[in-house]
Amino acid sequence: MLAKVIGCSVTGVEGLLVQVEVDLAQGLPSFSTVGLAEGAVREAKDRVRAAIKNAGYSFPQHRITVNLAPAAVKKEGTGYDLPMALGILAAAGLVDSSQLERTAMVGELSLDGSIRPVPGVLPMALAACREGMDRFLVPAGNSAEAAIVQGIEVYPIERLDQAVEFLVGRITLAPEVLDPAKLFARDRDRYSVDFADIKGQEYAKRAMEIAAAGGHNVLLTGVPGTGKTMMARRLATILPDLTLEEAIETTKVFSSAGLLAERESLLVTRPFRAPHHTVSDAGLIGGGQVPRPGEVSLAHNGVLFLDELPEFKKHVLEVLRQPLEDGTVVIARASSSLRFPARFMMVAAMNPCPCGFLGDRLKSCTCTPPQVQRYRSRLSGPLLDRIDMHVEVPPVAVQDMLSQPEGETSAQIRERVNRARSRQRQRFAKMADIHCNAQMSAREVKKFCRLDPASADLLGQSITRLGLSARAYHRILKIALTIADLAGAAQPSQSHVAEAVQYRRLQFDV
């Protein structure tokens, strides 16, 4: 007696269909699981046995062998419980095997037969749809998440006996249906902060608008209390609206990491991640015994904010080089290599010295020159060179805070950013891997950033005078193109290049 059921798994952030083969043979009652099953999968036999009995069915007194194919891939998690249980009942003749064809399923069983939610259902649903499955049985707590995928019917299941009755045709269930447009309309402005809260700092706010329009990385430098953290936390509110494709990519990462709330279907606002400076390299980049997405992947299509940048361990900061350049993180292990998406905007903030008051007009700095040099040397030149814009944030006088009117709202700034991004989408329409100016390679920069002689001469003189690298040269061109997009210009002009150069002038040497 043999039955085959289609289960699902997640490898990295991608779904994988797993064939669950169940064989009932004569012999002493036993239950063995093969196919590189890890601890939680091996323990499933006790949950499955209790769930089948408490759901009102007889557990077969046979020698039960469960094979999880492909056997070369490690099987982890509790999502195999439901396909194992239904496979056993199908092998025992309670469920017609033909009803299991082209039906994928996932779910963790409680001892009473109820079905608990599991992480990673969205990438599983995408994999099931991609492989041509017609139906996908999921825990009720995950159904809204899976229903985002078009092209496959998603059925919420609450108990094991409900799944059996549905498969044998005794009851009917309505598939979960969601309209992504309604989700975007309902949740798009779900922010608790706004750029209108910031008084003054017009130069810094202009820099943040340019960064948001082109997807550029930013370093904010200034004495304590000037609003660096305040501006960074409001950057996500002026970023362009997520597309459905970007929302699904971001939700996949959160789903795989188990961070998607129950009954939450889609993340329609850009993520904002602000790890503490004590974070480890595995916590920031990803990894662990079972590789999981790190903070850079959780910030995919959003903002990664590193406050007090020099306080991070130097080796932790250095691992940011690859994701800043490539937009992906590769976690290599002896058995496998996993790739996590990490296309994010990095916003960092720091003080000019350990005490924070170097250059302040009101408070004197108490740091010695060697202390200042050691503090600044925690940031390597190659890392700083990968940060597009370096912005000094000066203090705001109290009288200015009291007298200045409220500034522009995030919605007003985001409207301009959306127009600039629209121009970039048209520019890169035939390039699947490029979504904004900051993601251009040297070839695209040469193609799209054509300067007139006066602008080229200004840029060349600036590069020579400031001693900037070839990478900085290309990044200035990208920033200039973003400024032109905000202005509605076809190509960067001399004024656009001049403004872009201002954002590459480091305030100190490392």
Give an account of the 3D structure.
It contains 22 helices and 18 strands. It has 510 residues and is an alpha/beta fold. It has a 5-stranded parallel β-sheet with strand order 11-14-17-10-18. A 4-stranded mixed β-sheet has the order 1-2-4-3. A 3-stranded parallel β-sheet has the order 5-8-9, with helices on both faces. Strand 12 and strand 13 form a beta hairpin. Helix 2 packs across helix 3 and helix 8 runs parallel beside helix 18 (410-427). It is elongated and about 85 Å long. The chain starts with a strand and ends in an 8-residue tail after the last helix. The model has no long low-confidence stretch (mean pLDDT 91).
Instruction: Calculate Rg over CA atoms.
Output: 27 Å
Q: N- to C-terminal separation? A: 71 Å
Count of strand segments: 18
Helix content: 25-40%
Strand content: 15-25%
Count of discrete alpha- or pi-helical segments spanning 4 or more residues: 22
- Please tell me the overall pLDDT: 91
**Structural class by SSE content:** alpha/beta
| Largest sheet features | 5 strands, parallel
Shape: elongated
Uncertain residue segments: none
Q: Taking strands numbered 1, 2, ... along the chain, how are they ordered across the largest sheet?
A: 11-14-17-10-18
